[in-house]
Amino acid sequence: MKKNADSTIKDAILVTGGAGFIGSNFIRYVFERTDYKGKIVNIDKLTYAANPANLQDISEKYKNRYFFEKTDICNYDAVMEIFKKYKITKVVHFAAESHVDRSILGPKAFIQTNIVGTFNLLEISRQYWNAQISIQNRSIFRFHHISTDEVYGSLGMKGLFTEKTAYDPHSPYSASKASSDHLARAYYHTYRLPVSISNCSNNYGPYQFPEKLIPLVIINALEGKSIPIYGDGKNVRDWLYVEDHCSAIWSILSNGKAGETYNIGGREEKTNFDVVNKICKILDRLHPARESKFSSYKDLITFVKDRPGHDRRYGIDPSKIENELGWKAEVDFDAGMRKTVEWYLANPRWIKNIKSGEYLKWIDKNYSKRQ
Ligand code: NAD
Ligand code: DAU
């Protein structure tokens, strides 16, 4: 699903958090892989996780259609101004504090951005939708809220998360996302604001910040540092190549219904141990270790103290989006991992850049606590 039949130059999509991992991949995807003709306005507060350079080429290539506004989603007046200035027709809301470990060490920012920030955006959308959009055009407006499978809690050995699975979040991060999902749903039911929601499994791919498992492992390996695996390494995550997440969001925006929730996943459940081994194997082939202190990157694997409240298994049933919208993940885990490792190997400057800021300070302060 790559087309949006209704797209005109008058469309203006507001993307929040578009300087982060998935948001920047999504903006790139819409400009480069769909026939969208309108504008994209990226609002991002530029936290430690943001990197506006992710979109440097896009901002030059599409300078009449891509706009960046450094703004906090919690700032009502500034965001409302942006809605009016660009005549926003759709919102795709990615902006969030996204890292579970950080939410355990300091939940406050998660409550502020993920809950209060989402409330603020919903409220602005409602006011704007009521006051600024003609009655005929109201159904064209869409608020698409990006969420996570973590709101469903942890699975046992069997079963998958469906859209009907009861919410049971366990970390401050997932609790804040669950709360934002409830608010988004409430705005549809109470005010009929055209809201849709998607709950996606673990993403990986280019531009992912190296606090998350896959880029952390690649970069630590390349630097000859130990590769930390929490607990026994048997926790399971369901991995999706980021471009497939972007195409799923695009198909929801194009053909999904307001008031609906769609689970997104690639049917690629793996233990963390298997994921790490896979990365080491690819690196051993593409970039053999030259140091004599280890012969394979696997030698760097270190089991460390488990994450508190670590969810054991996630697994998404994506049947609804597959059957109703004809979406399907196109990149399998083997191909996606190869592309991802190749991307990090080809982009040492990006790595150097992103590691020169806040991330390093945070790792220095917190990493030793996990040993
Ligand atoms: P990320 O941490 O890479 O990016 C988040 C972006 O939001 C950053 O650019 C940051 O500067 C911005 N931001 C944070 N607070 C803000 C604020 N108050 N105002 C404006 N901008 C702010 O995150 P990601 O991994 O790209 O995740 C994006 C969204 O997708 C999140 O909502 C997350 O919950 C969801 N999600 C992520 C995954 C995953 O595997 N990464 C899976 C499912 C859902
Ligand atoms: O499931 C979707 C979620 O996936 C998103 O909502 C979150 O925003 C995203 O961060 C991700 O959460 P996880 O906690 O699953 O991702 P993370 O990469 O932090 O960890 C993946 C697994 O790897 C998890 O079981 C913890 C483990 N892990 C993680 C790190 C950083 C390790 O074993 N060692 C590590 O160093």
Morphology = globular
What's the alpha carbon Rg, rounded to whole Å? 20 Å
**What's the CATH class, please?**
Alpha Beta
- The CATH level-2 architecture is identified as 3-Layer(aba) Sandwich
Bound compounds, please? nicotinamide-adenine-dinucleotide, 2'deoxy-thymidine-5'-diphospho-alpha-D-glucose
CATH superfamily: NAD(P)-binding Rossmann-like Domain
What's the total number of strands? 12
- Rounded to the nearest angstrom, the distance between the terminal CA atoms is 45 Å
Indicate the proportion of strand residues. Answer: 15-25%
Order the strands across the largest sheet as they lie in space: 3-2-1-4-5-6-10
Q: Number of helical segments?
A: 13
Please give the domain count.
1
Look at the structure and give the mean pLDDT. 94
The major beta sheet can be summarized as: 7 strands, parallel
Name the structural class. alpha/beta
Q: Give the CATH topology.
A: Rossmann fold
Tell me the series of helices and strands, N- to C-terminal: EHEHEHEHHEHEEHEEHEEHEHHHH
Approximately how much helix is present in the residues?
Answer: 40-55%
Outline the low-pLDDT stretches: 1-5
